[in-house]
Each structure stands twice: as structure tokens, then as C-alpha cells.
Specification:
Blueprint (H helix, E strand, L loop, with lengths): L1 H52 L13 E7 L5 E8 L4 E11 L6 E11 L9 E5 L3 E3 L3 E4 L19 E5 L5 E3 L3 E4 L4 E3 L6 H5 E2 L2 E2 H6 L3 E3 L3 E6 L3 E2 L2 E2 L26 E4 L3 E14 L3 E3 L3 E9 L3 E3 L6
Parallel strand pairs: 5-8, 6-9, 7-10, 8-11, 14-18, 15-19, 18-19, 19-20, 19-21, 20-22
Antiparallel strand pairs: 1-2, 2-3, 3-4, 12-13, 16-17
């Protein structure tokens, strides 16, 4: 009888131990699966966060329906693949799939998130090559041209836009031309109430002057003097440099150079003077803007004060 009781006790203990091992194993597996699922979800979120940070401006020109794929490495062995499809002129559908696990006997966890990205492109009202609220005087050997044309070497600009005026002014101001000045456009000089409206200069669709200034790539103190603005490339990589000033590369070459796709937003907190060099993007000047010769800029220039260009070679 004692032997039977001992054997029964051993069986009961064995069953209990087996149950404990089973429950512990299940808890371990559930915990491991939860960890891998969390890592996969974090990786998928990382992919959606990295996409706008690493966005290449050249991808803006992709045709509708075209796709691109980006891959990233996440912490603790996780990875993520982001597939982006252009669905309209300014909208992109991004699907980010994070993966974690698949090490040894571990199961693989996957999480997939998606979102719609829309390019926030300022809708600026370019009424003329020069648009001003105040009186305008153009002197010297100067050409002001409102006819659209791609800069030299820019092969991917698409169709040209309709021509605008050479100079656009408000009805209460005048435009004076002295010397060998050529005003071209449709018409050469346009008088319009919109030129006297502050919305023309400071509101751009869903964006405005303040939001562009807040998103500036680089900021300069008032009274800054910059000499020799030009692209800066180190190890084949374009450097976002405030000083020496790198405002991108408007002179395109074949093969393309590193700073051709770099279009910064430049914000001067007061007066700004530039001598020689080249750049591209959007230039915001809170005060007066002075160009002292041999300077080229491709893009929008918005000056809250006065604009003075002297010397030769300014474009």
C-alpha cells in the first residue's frame, strides 16, 4: 500500500511539474512574441518617420503609378522596407513593413503601417520677374525677362509656363527705367492691384512667409555679408553648410553633381549682402537685400525691404 501511495504521489508531482513547465513555456513564448511584435511595430513606424527626412527631391518628378523602395535597419535586429507609390501630382502612398525575429527557433513578427504623404508646395503668385509694392527703378545694363525658360542644363523642368510680366507694380507706384535696360514679358510692365496686396508676398496657398521661415534650412543674422556662395561637397556628399554658405548647385552637369538636388530655404533675419557665387531654392530676407556682383540665384526671392543689385554678372 505504501508503495502504491508513493507511486501515486510521484505521478501527481510529475503532472504538476509538467503543468508548470508547460505554463512557463507558454508564458515565455507569449512574452517573446509580444517583444517581437513590438519591435516590428516600432520598425514600421521608424520607416514612415525616416521617409520624409530622407526624401530625394528628384522623386517629386516620378510619374503617377511609379514606385520606389527604401530599406532601413532598426534596433535589436529589426528591419523595415518602405514601398512608396505616387498616386497623384503631389501625393504619395507609403507602406512600411517592419520585421523582427527569425533568429534561431524564433518566429518572425511583421507589422505593416501605411500613410498618405502630400507635398506641401507653396503656391506663389509670380506676377512678374520683379513684383513690387513700392516704386521701382531699374538702371544700367540690365535684362528683366518674364518669359519662362529652364536654366541651362536643367533637362527635367517639364513644359514651360505661360509668360508673365517683366515688372509688376501696383496702381499707386511707378516703374522707372534708365540706361540700357531691357524689359521683356507679357506685358513688359503690368499694373495690378494684386501687386499692392500683401497676400501676394506673404501667403502661398497652405503656406505663408512665417511657415517658410520656420522651416528654413539655414538662418543668417541681420547685417550678414556673404562672399563666394557655392556648393560644398565632402566625400561625394552635399554638405548643408551655413558658413561657408552652401545654397545648392544651379549649374547642372553630366553626370549630376551632389548638390544639384539640394534646394535650401534661406532666411535672413534682417539686411543681407551677397558678393559673388551661386545658389538655388527659396530666399527670404526680412530687411534689405544687396547683391554686389557676379551672383546667380535660381528660385524665389522674397524681400521685405529693398532690393539693390550692382556690378555685373548678376542673374
Amino acid at each position: 500500500m505504501a508503495l502504491l501511495m508513493a507511486l501515486g504521489a510521484i505521478v501527481i508531482i510529475g503532472v504538476m511539474i509538467g503543468g508548470i513547465v508547460f505554463v512557463s513555456t507558454q508564458d515565455y513564448r507569449i512574452g517573446g512574441n509580444t517583444v517581437r511584435q513590438t519591435r516590428a511595430a516600432a520598425a514600421a513606424e521608424l520607416g514612415l518617420n525616416r521617409l520624409p527626412q530622407d526624401w530625394n527631391l528628384a522623386d517629386n518628378r516620378r510619374p503617377v503609378g511609379d514606385t520606389l523602395t527604401k530599406t532601413y535597419t532598426a534596433p535589436r535586429g529589426a528591419s523595415v522596407k518602405v514601398t512608396v507609390t505616387k498616386v497623384s501630382g503631389v501625393s504619395f502612398w507609403a507602406v512600411s513593413e517592419g520585421t523582427a525575429g527569425a533568429q534561431g527557433s524564433q518566429a518572425t513578427a511583421r507589422r505593416r503601417y501605411a500613410t498618405l504623404f502630400k507635398l506641401d508646395m507653396p503656391q506663389m503668385n509670380f506676377m512678374g520677374a520683379i513684383t513690387t509694392q513700392g516704386n521701382t527703378t531699374v538702371s544700367g545694363n540690365v535684362t528683366v525677362n518674364g518669359n519662362d525658360a529652364p536654366p541651362a542644363g536643367w533637362a527635367a523642368c517639364g513644359a514651360t509656363a505661360p509668360p508673365v510680366a517683366g515688372a509688376a507694380i501696383s496702381p499707386t507706384t511707378t516703374a522707372t527705367v534708365n540706361g540700357s535696360v531691357t524689359l521683356s514679358g507679357s506685358p513688359p510692365v503690368l499694373t495690378s492691384p494684386a501687386a499692392g496686396d500683401t497676400n501676394t508676398y506673404f501667403n502661398y496657398g497652405n503656406s505663408n512667409y512665417q511657415s517658410l521661415a520656420a522651416a528654413a534650412t539655414m538662418t543668417y543674422a541681420g547685417g550678414s555679408l556673404l562672399n563666394g556662395v557655392g556648393p560644398l561637397v565632402v566625400g561625394g556628399v552635399c554638405q548643408a553648410s551655413v558658413n561657408p554658405p552652401n545654397w545648392g548647385e544651379p549649374t547642372h552637369a553630366a553626370p549630376a553633381t551632389a548638390c544639384e538636388s539640394y534646394f535650401p530655404i534661406i532666411h535672413a533675419l534682417g539686411d543681407l549682402k551677397v558678393t559673388t557665387g551661386r545658389g538655388q531654392g527659396i530666399l527670404l530676407v526680412d530687411g534689405d537685400f544687396t547683391v554686389a556682383g557676379n551672383f546667380t540665384f535660381d528660385g524665389a526671392v522674397i524681400v521685405r525691404g529693398g532690393l539693390k543689385m550692382s556690378g555685373t554678372g548678376n542673374k
